[in-house]
Amino acid sequence: MLTDDENIIDLQFAVQYILKDPIEYLFNNRRPEDTVLQAAETAFREIVGKSKMDFALYEGREQIAISAQKLMQEILDRYKTGIAISKVNVQNAQPPEQVQAAFDDAVRAKQDLERQKNEGQAYYNDVVPKARGTASRLTEEANGYRQRVVANAEGEAARFRQVLTEYSKAPAVTRERMYLETMQQILSSTSKVVVDAKGSGNLLNLPLDKLLQTPAAGALVDGTAGRPSATEPPAPPDTGARSRDALRNREREGRP
User: Fold this and answer.
1) Contacts of 11 (CB under 8 A, 6+ apart)
2) Counting beta carbons within 10 angstroms of the beta carbon of residue 35, is it exposed (0 to 12), middle (13 to 18) or buried (19 or more)?
3) pLDDT band at 70, cuts 50/70/90?
């Protein structure tokens, strides 16, 4: 049979029928079985001739059988054969044997196409939701960061307005307080060294942070803190201090 897209297919079908009027069956037609056969071929050729090849070979078999049964019944009723078609089955539909190999290749190519489409769809279903989830997470993180930065900026602006209000009331006191707070914040996180610049010329460095880390002098000795040992000799008298005191007394006495 020739299809609508000018392809040839071999179609095998079976027709079941019953007698609904014996008089018409016996007296109106000479060979009613041949009439059924010719009506079936006519109906199928007409239906297949209006269908595409793929439709006739695959998904359209059931529909072709139903349409052919309806058309066959109309033809037999017009001929008054007394026959009622009970069932029409399409048993097999395939291309001609001469082009079967090429047709099989085309079928395999179509199946590969469907398989690749399904794989692509599966990959899409796997990747796209993940990408959307990542995009949603990044969006939420960006919104959180924006809210945090805006809140910090608003807090800093509010604090600056409060400081400005206090500064307008007492500029000198506010400057002094801001200076002290700034120095306290800076010095609390840095190491400190005290330098005696007004002495007798000897530079004295006193690293307070190192002294605080070093254990205090006169640690526990024999279980007692700051108590000298019995074997240690007594400290010698400070003769230099006495000499300096005597010299100062003489200078005072010599003044008028």
Assistant:
1) 1, 44, 48, 56, 90, 92, 93
2) middle
3) very high
Q: Which stretch of 4-18, 41-55, 121-135, 190-204 has the lowest confidence by average pLDDT?
A: 190-204
pTM of the prediction? 0.45
137 to 65, 126, 141, 150: CA distances (angstroms): 56, 17, 6, 20
User: Is the pLDDT at 85 greater than 90, yes or no?
Assistant: yes
DSSP the chain: -B-TTS-B-EEEEEEEEEES-HHHHHHT-S-HHHHHHHHHHHHHHHHHHTS-HHHHHTTTHHHHHHHHHHHHHHHHHHHT--EEEEEEEEEEEE--GGGHHHHHHHHHHHHHHHHHHHHHHHHHHHHHHHHHHHHHHHHHHHHHHHHHHHHHHHHHHHHHHHHHHHHHH-HHHHHHHHHHHHHHHHHTTS--EEE-TTSSS---EEEHHHHHHSPPSS-EETTEESPPPTTSPPPPP-HHHHHHHHHHHHHHHH--
Q: Which residue has the tokens 């291309």?
A: 95
Q: What is the mean pLDDT of the chain?
A: 80
pLDDT above 70 as % of the chain? 75
Query: Which structure tokens are listed for 134?
Result: 């990542």
- Please give the pLDDT value at position 88: 93
Tokens for 252, please give them. Answer: 């005072």
Per-residue model confidence as pLDDT tens digits over 100-114: 888 888 878 988 999
